Amino acid sequence: MKLSIGNSLKLAFRPWVEGLEHVPAEGPAILASNHLSFSDSFFLPAVLDRKVTFVAKAEYFTSPGVKGKLTAAFFKGVGQLPVDRSGARGAAEAAIKSGIEVLERGELFGIYPEGTRSPDGRLYRGKPGGLARVALATGAPVIPVAMIDTEKIQPPGKVVPKLMRPGIRIGKPLDFSRYDGMDGDRFIMRSLTDEVMYEIMKLSGQEYVDMYATAAKRQLAEAAKRREE
């Protein structure tokens, strides 16, 4: 199913790709990407020969009706794993556990260090918990990835995507073996995450904002509410 979905996406949108040679032909690796659009988790797997697994909200797999079944089949087809996000801490732990399991099988694991989609196309501070813990627990190399223009194809709230070419830049793998045995050190986790975010920034050309995207979304929502009052 991944093959048919991937081929359909490539035919319809013709994404351009740079750096495919940096994705290993076998063995575990973490693909750490910026996050501009709901469609990011579809375009990246579509251009890779290997399966890459992301985690997704459990609601995408349990919605009722025909639409719900189609959505669940689509997400399973592109390698998404359901994670219950009803509790923030529990969801984070489940995502980390899933990532470790994927990598221990020798597969590719995809993660968005920002934790959520960018609200304005800029690159936000990476959250150290998920990416760093998975990388340090497994020793897998981290491959920085930049999605280009996907927010123009499917902005938040838009159901029907616009037909245009997105881009994907894949950077050289980053080796963090120098941090072996330091997975409990919050300063090491912060340093690792910041290094990955810097490489993503160079690949994407995005403006970097030293705050979390979740905080930026709250500020935007509060500003919009004040304007309505």
Automatic annotation (TrEMBL):
It comes from the Bacteria. The keyword Transcription regulation does not apply. InterPro entries: Plipid/glycerol_acylTrfase (IPR002123). Keywords: Acyltransferase, Transferase. It holds the Pfam family Acyltransferase. Residues 29-150 form the Phospholipid/glycerol acyltransferase domain. The keyword Acyltransferase applies. GO terms for molecular function: acyltransferase activity. PANTHER family: 1-ACYL-SN-GLYCEROL-3-PHOSPHATE ACYLTRANSFERASE. This is 1-acyl-sn-glycerol-3-phosphate acyltransferase. It comes from Streptomyces durbertensis. The lineage of its organism: Bacteria, Bacillati, Actinomycetota, Actinomycetes, Kitasatosporales.
